[in-house]
Amino acid sequence: MSTDVTAKTPAPAPPGKSGGAAADGLLQLVLDGMRRNMRQYGMLIALGLIVVLFAVWTEGDLLLPRNVSNLVLQNSYILILAIGMMLVIIAGHIDLSVGSLTAFIGSMAAVFMVKNDLPWPVAVILCLAMGAVAGAAQGFFIAYGGIPSFIVTLAGMLIFRGLTEIFLEGQTLGPFPEGLQKVANGFLPEVGPNTNYHNLTLLLGFGMIAFVVFQEFRDRRRQQEFNLDVPPFNLFLLKLVALGAAILTLTMLLASYKGAPIVLLILGVLLVGFGYVMRNAIIGRHIYAIGGNLPAAKLSGVKDKKVTFLIFVNMGMLAALAGLVFAARFNAASPKAGLNFELEAIAASFIGGASMSGGVGTVLGAIIGGLVLGVLNNGMNLVGIGTDWQQVIKGLVLLAAVGFDVWNKRKVGS
User: d(Cα 165, Cα 57) in Å, to the nearest integer?
Assistant: First the structure.
């Protein structure tokens, strides 16, 4: 017995449907990629929406070149602290002492430079060394003494705040040398012909765009070589366009005022340096490992105590740098300096994607989280929202960010 099999030719798609289906497929691909990478892109999108909201609310005042420049200067020390705090949180720890340590280092800088007329470059080196020693002392008790970081740094917060009061004798001390003031408040010099823009800032901005594009392509290629999941190429291109547009917009705004602040260059060096360490260096992988699964990291040969110790040494140095920038910006060391800085840095880290359980987070995320807080503060001041409601709103933003993290992990787990 034989059976006739007649091949059926698929019916052609109705005219006009194929293009719509392709567009729908592309949109679905982008949406699926964003869902899989929501932790990476969520706060970046939120930052863009917050900027647009306050730009409209303030009738464009938020994005005035002078205000953008002030936004960078006003939040520089919090962003410096957030970078170090992100590493601490990724490793599964916390540091409550950084606000007091910034005040203490500022007081010591005033003692060195104002009371004893020490040259400011020498005083800066001594202050950074003191920050490293302070971080090492706390790191020793945490890593080798086995005392929880919460307890050690809480004690450090009290100790450093008390030492600040002792060295300043309860008084404000200043002014600082002009050279140090320029580090915190100064701008890059004018070079080249008159173009109505700051030429050096334009050059740096275009160079930064080229660097970001190169880095993103290289990271994507390396991930593909190791058979790791990468976002769809369309979403990857969308990300590059968004990053390039953001950098170009910031560059043009700064170049149309006084140029890039010097402290922005310091932040750029820290972002690139620590970003490279966390992505490519062995110690970066070890930090993620001990925060993600400490017993497994120990079994794999990770020297968790040494890594933890170095994390707090690094946090101490960054806190010292933030203390110098803060003191130089306000041209005085005050016993009340650094109040709630630790809370701002912790909030910036969690808003930027850090996880309470450790093992998750990026240096860029810490910068984005700090900028979210900075734009919120600046925007709410411009529209006249009182400090009482500002605290409420920032608390809700922090709660929403951590709640999103918990929801996202449950969804992934299910």
Answer: 42
d(C-alpha 405, C-alpha 76), whole Å: 26
Measured between alpha carbons, how far is 34 from 32 in angstroms, rounded to an integer? 5
Task: Report the distance separating Cα 333 and Cα 168, nearest Å.
Answer: 8
Q: Chain centroid to CA 327: how far?
A: 21
pLDDT tens per residue across span 347-366 = 999 988 888 888 888 998 89
Classify residue 90 by burial, with Cβ atoms within 10 Å: 0-12, 13-18, 19+: buried
User: What is the identity of the amino acid at 264?
Assistant: L
* DSSP helix, strand, coil percent of the chain (3-state; round to 5): 75, 0, 25
Q: Where does 169-303 have alpha helices with state H? A: 178-185, 199-225, 233-255, 262-280, 282-292, 294-299
Please, how many CA atoms are within 13 Å of residue 378, restricted to the half-sphere of its CB?
26
CB atoms closer than 10 angstroms to residue 288: 17
Helix (H) or strand (E) segment spanning residue 5: none
Report the predicted TM-score, pTM, of the whole model to 2 decimal places.
0.88
What is the average per-residue pLDDT within 275-301?
Answer: 92
> What is the spatial distance between Cα 104 and Cα 163, in angstroms, rounded to a whole number?
7
CA distance 216 to 221: 9
C-alpha distance from residue 48 to each of 55, 143, 165, 318 (Å): 10, 39, 41, 27
Alpha-carbon span 354 to 401, nearest angstrom: 10
User: Do the beta carbons of residue 309 and residue 299 sit within 8 Å?
Assistant: no
DSSP state letters, 18-80: HHHHHHHHHHHHHHHHHHHTHHHHHHHHHHHHHHHHHHHHTTTGGG-HHHHHHHHHHHHHHHH
Q: Which of 93-102, 189-198, 270-279, 301-310 has the lowest mean pLDDT?
A: 189-198
Residue 105 and residue 127: Cα distance in Å, rounded?
6
* Burial group, residue 16, by CB count within 10 angstroms (0-12, 13-18, 19+): exposed
